[in-house]
Structure formats: C-alpha cells, structure tokens
Amino acid sequence: MQDTAPPSGASEVAGRTAAHDMFDADVASRALGVELVSAGGGFAEARMRVVPTMVNGHRIAHGGYVFLLADTAFALACNSHGPATVAAGGEITFVRPAHEGDLLVARAAERTRFGRSGIYDVTVSGADGQVVAEFRGHSRTLTAAPATPGPSNDTAP
C-alpha cells in the first residue's frame, strides 16, 4: 500500500477546497499540531511532530496519535471534493515505531468512490521516508435532511 503518491499533476491542485475549510474548523487536529500540507482531487498530505505528551510507556509514539494523523489526512482527502464526508470505518497497521521528535507525514489517496461511499489509503512515514503505518479508511458522504413541510413548533396554540 505504499503507492499513495498522486498521479502526475494531481499534487498541483491550486486553491482552497472544502477540505481546507473543514481543517480550519478541526480544533482537535490543530491542537495536537497537525498541519495541512495540501489537499485536492482526492489526495491530501498532513504532518505532525511527535511531542513528549504523545509518547507511551514504551517510549514510542502512542498508536492513537499515529491513527489520528492518518485519520485527519483521510478526512482531508475525502472532503477535498466538496460535499461533507465522514468516516464510516478505518483500520491501521503499525509497521515500525515513531519516537519523540519525529516528524510524521501522512499521505492519503482516494482509491475509489461509488455512490456515497469511498475507500482511501493513507501511508504514514517518518521524515526519512520509512513507513510507520498503513491506514485504510471507508468514507460516507452526508446528504442534507429533506425539508419537511408543516407547521413550526414555535407557534402558540
């Protein structure tokens, strides 16, 4: 699953996408130091430095933080198309540990979209290019609830 580089030209998607707006509102990811590098056309790249509060009892990066970075890149990729999209599921395989001070880079790539569903692969690597984890996410595009005609509940009897 290492082939997550966008095809030629896809990494040059210019301008803001819905993913940028979503990330601006993502307090959790930004509070943990996740940075949006790029997003567009079903691809995204995000990065995060492993700080002391992210290290577990084995002195390696806690897997939950690695998952969070991968999940954020996944969310950015599947929201780069526009309609609000959420995770329907995700799984991760940890390949090697990351350590305090490491800069982790997550590259997400769309594999397929069908109907309101999608499948995305994310590779999390260290700055040296060594793979830390592989993530696969399943997305679901939300639809607006249909308006229901009828009286408002605000009216007095």
Structure description:
- This protein is α+β, with helices and mostly antiparallel strands.
- It has one domain (12-141): Hotdog Thioesterase (Thiol Ester Dehydrase, Chain A), CATH 3.10.129.10.
- It has three helices and six strands.
- It is globular.
- The N and C termini lie far apart (62 Å).
Chain-wise SSE layout:
Blueprint: H1 18-24, H2 27-31, E1 35-40, E2 43-49, H3 63-78, E3 85-94, E4 103-114, E5 117-126, E6 131-141
Antiparallel strand pairs: 1-2, 2-4, 3-6, 4-5, 5-6
Helix pairs in contact: 1-3
GO molecular function: acyl-CoA hydrolase activity
InterPro entries: Acyl-CoA_thioesterase_PaaI (IPR052723), HotDog_dom_sf (IPR029069), PaaD (IPR011973), PAAI_dom (IPR003736), Thioestr_dom (IPR006683)
Family: Belongs to the thioesterase PaaI family.
Question: Judging from the principal axes of the Cα atoms, what is the shape?
Answer: globular
CATH homologous superfamily placement: Hotdog Thioesterase
* Straight-line distance between termini: 62 Å
Poorly predicted runs of 5 or more residues: 1-13, 150-157
* Mean pLDDT over the full residue set: 87
CATH topology: Thiol Ester Dehydrase, Chain A
CATH class: Alpha Beta
- Report the portion of residues in β strands: 35-45%
Q: How is the main sheet built?
A: 6 strands, antiparallel
The percent of residues in helical segments reads 10-25%
Return the string of H and E elements.
HHEEHEEEE
Structural class: alpha+beta
> How many E-type strands?
6
**How many helix segments?**
3
In what order do the strands lie side by side in the largest sheet? Answer: 1-2-4-5-6-3
Q: Rounded to an integer, what's the Rg over CA atoms?
A: 18 Å
Looking at the overall shape, the CATH architecture is: Roll
Protein name: Acyl-CoA thioesterase
GO molecular function: acyl-CoA hydrolase activity
InterPro entries: Acyl-CoA_thioesterase_PaaI, HotDog_dom_sf, PaaD, PAAI_dom, Thioestr_dom
Organism: Micromonospora nigra
